[in-house]
Design a protein that fits this description.
The protein is of the alpha+beta class and 165 residues long. The protein is built from four helices and seven strands; from the N terminus they run αββββαββαβα. The strands form two sheets. A five-stranded mixed beta barrel has the order 1-2-3-6-5.
């Protein structure tokens, strides 16, 4: 039957791929516990990164708004790795339809963000050493980045990257 109808094979491959992406979205960045209740989930069109943790989005045809990455902190724009964090965020989201999951306790217009390839944006920034965790998520990725002295973890005084003084 498959030999006569190759579209069945293609359909099976596509269904399998969608299943895997859905599985990744629900497990790779999944918060756990009672305090991590989802408040709101939505898709938006990302335009570009404003800085390492702020995404400019299209909120209507003529207006733009912002989404802030929750659970991470990135260096100030003029600090070492600040522009690298912005460029990495831009690479991960620019021109894509992104998925935002606002968790209980997150301010409005912020949340955990996935790009259209199923990558958790915060998790990827932490892995690359361009963000640090402010909560309990992505600790293993942060520890690995520290061990390998990636990005911000290659600097002696990391705190200087995040302060205005």
């Amino acid at each position: 039957m498959v030999e006569k109808h190759p579209e069945f094979t293609l359909g099976f491959v596509m269904a399998s791929a969608l299943f895997v992406v859905g599985l990744l979205l629900t497990t790779s960045c999944r918060p756990s516990g009672e305090d991590d209740a989802v408040v709101k989930e939505y898709y938006v069109d990302a335009v570009r990164a404003l800085n390492g943790r702020t995404i400019i989005i299209k909120s209507s045809i003529l207006t733009r708004s912002r989404v802030y990455l929750s659970g991470v902190e990135t260096p100030l724009e003029d600090a070492p790795f600040g522009s690298e964090a912005r460029q990495a965020l831009n690479r991960l989201i620019a021109g894509q339809r992104i998925f935002v999951k606002q968790m209980k306790g997150d301010p409005d217009n912020s949340g955990i963000v996935w790009n259209e390839y199923g990558q958790c944006v915060q998790q990827q920034l932490v892995k690359e050493g361009l963000a640090r965790c402010t909560g309990k998520l992505w600790r293993a990725e942060e520890e690995e980045a520290k061990r390998n002295k990636r990005g911000i973890w290659s600097v002696k005084n990391v705190e200087e990257l995040f302060s205005n003084n």
